[in-house]
Amino acid sequence: MWQIEDPNERRRLALAEIDKAPFGWYHVRAVVVAGIGFFTDAYDIFAINLVTAMLGVVFWHSAKSKPGIIPASSDTAIKVATSGGTVIGQVGFGILADILGRKKMYGLELILIIIATLAVGCHISKTLLYYTDSLFSLESGVGA
Fold first, then answer.
1. Per-residue pLDDT tens digits for 39-75
2. What percent of the chain is helix, strand and coil (3-state, nearest 5)?
3. What's the start-to-end Cα distance of the chain, in Å?
4. Taking a C-beta distance cutoff of 8 angstroms, is the pair 78, 131 a contact?
5. In 3D, which of 52, 63, 69, 70 has the Cα closest to residue 135?
6. Residue 1 confidence class, pLDDT cut points 50, 70, 90
7. Which residues make Cβ contacts (< 8 Å) with residue 63, sequence separation at least 6?
8. What integer best gives the mean pLDDT of the chain?
9. CA-wise closest residue to 136 among 123, 125, 124
10. Which of 38, 74, 93, 96 makes the best surface tag, with the fewest CB within 10 Å?
């Protein structure tokens, strides 16, 4: 079996195959997979504003100054972990997928998302570092 070394030529041939194929389930599947990826990225990025407000009510309800409101530094750390994790995940997993293959990386991303989701969900203390690390890991997987 022959392999094409030039990634641009490989991409061109793959797109030519898609263009030649009659409209069918393959096209629908490609659109649905891309749409789901976009939806999860967008939902995570936009929902983090609501999450930080709820975290303020839950964990800073007895604060001496501004009870129920998350401190600005904590709010910024959570939002930076979200955006940074998404960008790092997109770039890092994209490069790894080009090297190792898409199917293998989908499995690794899924494992990362499951473990990081459990870590974020099990966050029960005010340890912001644990939460932001878990959130960064989760966003790295979702961003991919």
1. 877 887 888 888 888 888 888 887 788 888 888 888 8
2. 80, 0, 20
3. 30
4. yes
5. 52
6. very low
7. 69, 71
8. 82
9. 123
10. 38
